[in-house]
């Protein structure tokens, strides 16, 4: 059930924000329409922005809706965005069962209580792409296109676990925030100049709010298995310097084309794992182009030029 319906928000202020670039997480959050959906194990929080075709955005591991901070406002001019904190992340309570399949099933049940169109697209970042793959088990008949951003589960990866620094044992706030910055440098962002205060705060808020136990999620079906079993139209986006998959991008292209030669594959130069934060204009333009333009059936595999995002030209 939906608890309390939508959070009240100031419509006039929303219009002002939509006409001007939003610069803080607090501003963006203040104009979201929030749905709190109750489950037997707690509540899942969904935030909704914009009007238009429905697009569900799923965050990555140790994440929250904030993983899409630099994409929500531009994309909300073209889409109705539905962005959850998945169970066990951010504001949402964990499920009893620790699995990707359980998260996907829970989100699928939520969709019945949300203002989602009869058909929708879904974009998943990293771990969120794996969840999106399992969501196809329940909603494949309604999915127009699935976009995978920095996805795993398609081949070999570079393990970064030993290079990460624990913030839990930090002595004081300065050391704690330094650990979060280090982890951004190690895993998430390729260029030091993109590790700004906002990125560090998002990393800190996301990591410290996570209660989902990733190491216990040993689902037998990886993303590749999901796409083979429940095929849909797929677009994949990776940063060229993604620390997780660097050296293995060609394997991913081959894996996707083996599943369906019409699948689409894009690599963004100079970007790391969190590509939609590091190169938001490029990723926003790609998402609009892939989801709204009429496409021919031929596959494209592109190395993207970085250009400013102008939604006036996105039709």
Description:
This protein has 315 residues and is an alpha/beta fold. It has a single domain, classed as Rossmann fold (3-Layer(aba) Sandwich), CATH 3.40.50.1820. The protein has 11 helices and 10 strands. A 10-stranded mixed sheet has the order 1-2-3-5-4-6-7-8-9-10, with helices on both faces. Helix 5 (127-139) links the parallel strand 6 (120-125) and strand 7. Helix 5 packs parallel to helix 8 (223-229). The longest helix is centred in the middle third of the chain and has 16 residues, at 173-188.
What's the average pLDDT?
89
Supply the number of structural domains: 1
Biggest sheet overview: 10 strands, mixed
Strand order of the largest sheet: 1-2-3-5-4-6-7-8-9-10
Unreliable residue runs: 1-5, 294-300, 307-315
**In the CATH scheme, what's the topology name?**
Rossmann fold
Count of β-strands: 10
- Amount of helix: 25-40%
Q: Which CATH top level class fits?
A: Alpha Beta
Question: From the coordinates shown, what is the CATH architecture?
Answer: 3-Layer(aba) Sandwich
The structure class reads: alpha/beta
Distance between the termini: 36 Å
Radius of gyration: 18 Å
Shape: globular
Describe the SSE topology.
Blueprint: E1 2-6, H1 11-19, H2 25-30, E2 33-39, E3 42-49, E4 54-58, H3 69-75, E5 80-85, H4 100-111, E6 120-125, H5 127-139, E7 143-149, H6 173-188, H7 197-209, H8 223-229, E8 234-239, H9 249-259, E9 264-268, H10 275-278, H11 280-292, E10 301-303
Parallel strand pairs: 4-5, 4-6, 6-7, 7-8, 8-9, 9-10
Antiparallel strand pairs: 1-2, 2-3, 3-5
Helix pairs in contact: 3-11, 4-5, 5-8, 6-7
């Amino acid at each position: 059930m939906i608890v309390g319906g939508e959070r009240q928000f100031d419509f006039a202020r929303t219009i002002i924000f939509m006409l001007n670039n939003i610069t803080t997480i607090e501003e963006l959050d203040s104009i979201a329409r929030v749905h709190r959906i109750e489950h037997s194990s707690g509540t899942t929080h969904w935030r909704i922005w914009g009007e238009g075709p429905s697009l569900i955005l799923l965050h990555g591991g140790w994440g929250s809706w904030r993983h899409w901070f630099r994409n929500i406002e531009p994309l909300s001019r073209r889409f109705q965005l539905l962005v959850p904190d998945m169970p066990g992340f951010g504001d949402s309570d964990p499920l009893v069962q620790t699995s990707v399949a359980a998260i996907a099933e829970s989100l699928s049940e939520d969709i019945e209580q949300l203002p989602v169109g009869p058909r929708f697209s879904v974009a998943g970042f990293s771990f969120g792409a794996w969840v999106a793959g399992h969501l196809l088990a329940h909603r494949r008949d309604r999915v127009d296109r699935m976009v995978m951003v920095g996805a795993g589960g398609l081949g070999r990866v570079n393990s970064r676990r030993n290079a990460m620094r624990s913030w839990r044992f930090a002595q004081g706030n300065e050391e704690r925030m330094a650990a979060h910055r280090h982890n951004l440098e190690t895993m998430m962002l390729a260029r030091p100049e993109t590790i700004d205060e906002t990125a560090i705060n998002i990393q800190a808020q996301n990591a410290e709010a996570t209660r989902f136990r990733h190491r216990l999620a040993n689902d037998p079906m990886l993303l590749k298995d999901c796409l083979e079993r429940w095929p849909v139209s797929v677009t994949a986006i990776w940063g060229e310097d993604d620390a997780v998959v660097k050296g293995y991008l060609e394997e991913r292209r081959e894996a996707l084309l083996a599943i369906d030669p019409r699948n689409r594959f894009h690599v963004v130069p100079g970007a790391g794992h969190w590509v939609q934060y590091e190169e938001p204009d490029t990723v926003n333009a790609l998402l609009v182009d892939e989801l709204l333009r009429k496409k021919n059936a031929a596959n494209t595999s592109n190395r993207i030029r970085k250009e400013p995002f102008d939604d006036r030209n996105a039709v």
